[in-house]
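Entry type: protein chain
Record version: 2
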Amino acid sequence: MFTGIVETTAVVTEITPSGTGLIFRLKTPLAAELKTDQSVSHNGVCLTVEETAADTYRVTAIQETLLKTNLGALKTGDAVNLERCLKSDGRFDGHIVQGHVDQTGVCTAITDQDGSWQLDFEYDTATGNVTVEKGSICLNGISLTVFNSRPGGFSVAIIPYTWENTGIRHLQVGHTVNLEFDVIGKYVARLLKPFQ
């Protein structure tokens, strides 16, 4: 389990096809602290560390993961948001994040608001996912608060710290992002569906 509070970023140094999956080698100062078989969130996707070195480590994304996320679009040199799993004795700063991406969305606008940024996103409503005004969303592994919630779309506001310390500053209009909708909201929506 994760919280959506990004610890650092990693840079993709190598991508190798492996059957229908992809093997990623990533470089980050955090690599020295990682252990084989550890779960780490990569842009909101929970992947297992398979091998570590001094400043790099390796993970594999299988076909199912590549079909449901934006990891297949990564290129060498791209930045990836990282978060290790939640420690049982740690603070719970973000919201409950499972590292299981529900679907992808598309960035439709980025507005510089002189001290913060507003980002607008659209997503396919056919899967039944919904956002709630002032609710939580995990976007590329970042726990954010939703506003302008509407069917198939929402906005988020980005503070300077998040802009400078995550890969969100590299987003451009038209880019695809990983979305994990609030787990509590998903259960409520499922429970209410028979009554709609």
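Comment: The domain at 8-84 is CATH 2.40.30.20 (Elongation Factor Tu (Ef-tu); domain 3).
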